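Posting this for the archive.
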Amino acid sequence: MCGICGQLRFDNQAVASQDLNTMMQKIARRGPDASGNWLQERVGFGHQRLSIIDLSNFGAQPMVDQLLDLVLVFNGTIYNYKSLRADLIKQGYEFFSHSDTEVIIKAYHYWGEDCVLHLDGMFAFCIWDKSQQQLFVARDRMGIKPLYFNLTDKAFSFSSSAQSLIAIGANTDINSVALQQQLSLHAVVPAPNTILEGIKKIKPATTLIIKPNGNIQEKTYWQPKAQRPAIALSSEEYIERTHELLSQAVLKRMDAADVPIGVLLSGGLDSSLLVALLHEAGHKDIRTFSIGFEDIDDEAGSEFEYSDQIVDKFNTRHEKYVVSNSQVLPRLAEAVANMNEPMVGQDSVAFYLLSEQVSKHIKVVLSGQGADEAFAGYFWYPRMQAESGSEVERFSKHYVDRPYEEYLQTVNKKYHSGNHTQHWLSKEFAKANADEFMDKVFRTDITRLIVDDPVKRVDNMTMAWGLEARVPFMDYHLVEHALSIPPSLKMHEEGKHPLKHISRGLLPDSVIDRKKGYFPMPALKYVRGEFLEFMADILSSNACINRGIFDQTFVQKVINKPEQYMTALNGSRLWHLALLEYWLQINVDRK
C-alpha cells in the first residue's frame, strides 16, 4: 500500500530532515499518491502513500493520535480492520478516520505488543509510543511486506527499501554469510541478513521494541506447526476445508479496498482458480492481466493458450501484453534498481514490465504466489521425498544451486567463511512440531524461503509502479491448514491435489491437467547472443574485478560454457553471478 521509513536516534541528536527526505525519495515509487513526514527531536517518520482504503486526508500518514500519544507509519493492508474497528469502538475508542491505519494505533493502545495477534493482513509498521518512550516495530506473519533496518551506536533507521538505507550511509561491505546463501539458494538470503553488512531485515512474524538507549527486544509471535490435527480428518474433509479457507482468503482481499481490484492471470492453475473463485462468489466484472515473451527454440515465452481459455470461460475484462526479447535488456537496469536485494528469478523483469502496464488501469491485484509451496506444486518435491541420506542432503541435492565445493571455486578466499546454507537448513529442519521430512520441507519453503524469493520479487516489482499485489494463497489461516495436510494428499496427482480437486468443474480440464508452468522468460534462462555478451561484460568489468568477490578464472569458465552451468532448478548460474554484480553496480556504486 505504501512506503515507510524513519529513524530513532540514540545519541540525543535530532533526526536530520535531509536524511528523512533522502530516504523518502528512494521509496517514492511505492506511494505515488501523497507523501508526509513527522519529526520530533530524536524520532522521525516518512511516508509515501498509495491510497487504497479511506482515500480522504484522514487516512494520511504519518498518522498522529494526539489523544493516545502515538504516531504510526504503516505499509500493507489489514483485512479484518472493519471488525476490529467495531470491537474497539465497543471498548470506548473513537475514530477520526475509516482507515485500517488508525485501527492499528487503537489496537496497539488496547493490546500492546500483542496487537499483532489480532491483525489479519500483510503489514510492516512502526509506532512511536511517546508515553513509553519506545519504538514498536512489527512485520506480518508471512513476511509479505518488507522492512529493512540499519543499526549503529547512533541510531536505528528503517525503511521499506534497502536503497533508502544505502543512501544515508549504511555499511555496504559484503556479508559473507549472505553471499554463500545468495549463490546457493537462488538469491534467498533469510532474515535477518542481507547481502550488505550494514542492512538487516526484520524476520517474518516478529516484533521489535527499541528504546532510546539502544536496548532492543525481539519477539517471534507466530510459528506454525506442520502436523496432523489431534482429530484425524478424511481426505474429503481436508479438501473441503481448503476450498472454504481459500474462498475466504480471496473474498477478504477483495473486500478490504475502496478501489477496484484485478487478477494477474498467468494461465496456470493458481491464478486461474482465483478467477474461478471470484466468479463462484458472484463477482461479475472481473479484470485480468497477462504478459508473454518471445519463444526461444522450443521454450514457450507465453501461456496465452491457457489464460485465453479462462478469459473466455469467465468473460473477464482482459488486457494482454506481449514483450519482445529486444525490450528486456534495455529495461533490465530499471528493474534491478527497484530490487531491494539481488533477485535472480527470471520473472522479475516480467513482473516489472507487467506491473507498469497494469498500474495504468488499477491499483490492486491478486496474485497466485504461495500455492506451489503450500500445496506441493514443484517437480523437486517428489525427488526430495524419494532421496536417501540426511534430511539436509535430501533437500539440498534437488534445491541448492551449487555444491559448496563449487562455491569455494566461485568466490575469492576472503569469503570462504563456512557452509552457511547447510548450517541454516540444519536449524530449520531441527525445529519441532513437524510430523515427517516433507512437512519440514513445506514449512521451510512457505514460511522462510518463499519470503525472500517469489514474494519479495512480486512486492518489489509491483510496488515499483504503485501497484499493490495481494496473495490469497499466503493467507496465514490457509497456510496453517495446508501444513496440517498429509504430504501424500498434497503430492497426489503430481502435486496440488487439493487445488486440482477444487478446480474440477470450475476450470477447463486442460488448465488443471497441464504440465506445471513457470513464468516464462527464455532469454534469461538460455543465455545467448546479446544476453551472454551483457553478462560477460558485467563480470569482466573493472568494477567487478576491483570488488573482488568472484574468482575470475572460474568466472571465465562459466562464461565460456554457460549452458553447462545450470542449477538443479534449471536456472543459469552465470545469470546468478551477473545479476549480483549488476545489482551492486546499480544500487551501491551509483548511490
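The longest helix spans residues 235-255. The two ends are 26 Å apart (CA to CA).
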